[in-house]
Amino acid sequence: xxxxxxxxxxxxxxxxxxxxxxxxxxxxxxxxxxxxxxxxxxxxxxxxxxxxxxxxxxxxxxxxxxxxx
Length: 69
Known about the structure:
Blueprint lengths: L1 H25 L2 H39 L2
């Protein structure tokens, strides 16, 4: 049980430290530019996953219709 609390405290401290560091980095112009690039890349990946999911779903429905279900 002691290890659980120690691990939870370390994870919590890491999360809080990460947010503090991100806030500090975002307060500079270069930091904002960096985060903007990261967000743009994440949006690209998210859109690609959505498009792939939609295409696959449509293919499955088309196959089911062709099969007569």
